Structures are given as C-alpha cells and as structure tokens.
Amino acid sequence: MAFDIAPSTAFWQRQMARVSGAGLPGSGRAVLARFALAERDQLPVWITPCFAAGIAAWFILPGVDAQLAWIALCAALALTTRALHGRWPEMELMPRCVFVAALMLAMGSTLVMARAYVIGAEPLAKPWFGTLQGRIVERDDLPARGLVRFMVRTAPALGLPDQVRVNLAAEKDDVVLRPGAVIAVRARLMPPAQ
Fold first, then answer.
1. How many helices (H) does the chain have, and how many strands (E)?
2. Which is it for the CA torsion 13, 15, 17, 20, positive or negative?
3. Does the predicted TM-score (pTM) go above 0.90?
4. Which positions of the chain have pLDDT values less than 50?
C-alpha cells in the first residue's frame, strides 16, 4: 500500500505567523505568545504545578486576611482575562494560559483553606487536670516508646476539644481499651507545643 499524501509540517509555522502582539513584532507579548504556541503540547503539564503553588501560597501567607486577598486576586485575574478576551473558543492561547493558571492558583488555595476549616479544631488553650470521660476513637501502640496512644472523643460537658490524645504507659494497658470503649480516667492534658 502506497501513501500518496505526506503529513504537513508547515501547519504550526502558519499558526505561529498569525500570533498577534501589541507594538513591534518583537514585543514581549508577541514573544510570549509565540513561546506558548510553540510549547502548546507541554502546557497542560503546568496545571498541577499551578494548583500546588496555590496550596503553597496558603502556607506561606501570614494570616486569613492575606490568604483571602490572594484568592480574590487570583479569581479577579481569571475573571478579568475572561472579560477582556471573550469566551473560551475565541481566546488566543496566552490568555487561556493566564486564565487557567490564575484559576488553578485560586482553587489550590481555596481547597486547602476549606480543608483546614473542616478538619481543624481549636487546640487546648491551657493545661487541664481532671476526670476525662469519653469514647476511644483510635488506638496506636508505640512499643519503642513504651506507650499506648489513644484518641478520645470527649464528653461535651467537659469543655475540652472534641478529640484529645492521651498516652498510657504500656505496662498499664488493658485488653478492654479498644476503639469504641467508654472510659473515665484521671488525666493531665497539655496544649500543643508552640
């Protein structure tokens, strides 16, 4: 079987020749547009690093106000790009890249912030000593340290966080101390190290 039509190699060159830029042909915008077009097969790979950079920004920024401002800035950049360059099919490649990158940065920060608020709980504010009542949620044997560590869901009347971690010397361990067991013990609880 003979092939009489060879694939065209000029298509990408024609695409690159149509890239528009403001000002002179060698302007920064045109150079970036040509670079993005030449590397268009590699661009989807950058979605994950942009998302990860959004997560990293949440850890780096100093407080909730700065984190919310970062998310708003990224979302505003994405919406501004969308407003200036029209719908997705009409956008050139570089505005698409800016739109997706800004959206991924905002989504990464938003995801980790939402996760922190759903999972996070107020830590114990000061040392506490008294009778701890609750249900064992998790048990973790630490033989190298000679301890058994329990996560205990506390009774609401105690005014403690929903779950606390309690260590018990391994020689005082009992077979009834399993997840689901209800306990009442004298305990000293310390806040997390600062």
1. 5, 4
2. negative
3. no
4. 11-24
